[in-house]
Sequence to fold (226 residues):
Amino acid sequence: SQKIEQNSEALNIQEGKTATLTCNYTNYSPAYLQWYRQDPGRGPVFLLLIRENEKEKRKERLKVTFDTTLKQSLFHITASQPADSATYLCALDMSMDSSYKLIFGSGTRLLVRP
Amino acid sequence: EADIYQTPRYLVIGTGKKITLECSQTMGHDKMYWYQQDPGMELHLIHYSYGVNSTEKGDLSSESTVSRIRTEHFPLTLESARPSHTSQYLCASSQGSYQPQHFGDGTRLSIL
Fold:
């Protein structure tokens, strides 16, 4: 079955630096991959979606890459701010069975120090 | 800005009680989902629906049941709550296939 690996250790960086979070998966490459932000006690909020035929996607200070050869997606936040501190979740589609479901990683917690 | 609402936000209740967690969305989405999430862990899909009168079990076995009588409403029911049901339950909806999911803020359930 498909497994998603996100770094369970928190990423602690200085304000203004670029944060890079990693999402690795083990089996088949999904048709698309999504990134969400989750704050404590809240539901996840959608950030970006990237399709298997796209190498890179950008939105303001956010950038996502998708490498189907490495089975990896990288999520970058440039010019990070303390308000970016949150847990970031990677999610893959389950299109193998045409049921349009997502499976989620456990997320990586980002802490941005002022 | 949230268009998907879950009630209650918190519920502490004794073993054996019947519980219904409510989820409503105002976006007209056909697809709706229930996830279970423990602290620091991934979301696990427990139920989903592709439209009215359509419900399916998710990847994580759950003793809960769901119904979808109206497009906007997707309640989850536990007939007899047990301490093992203690968790956070998140509801989500999406416009269609390969679309982002919109989440509610969840119900944190504690069974004593």
Q: What stands out?
A: Chain B has a mean pLDDT of 93. The first strand of chain B starts at residue 4 and ends at 7. The two ends of chain B are 34 Å apart (CA to CA). Chain B has no helices and eleven strands.
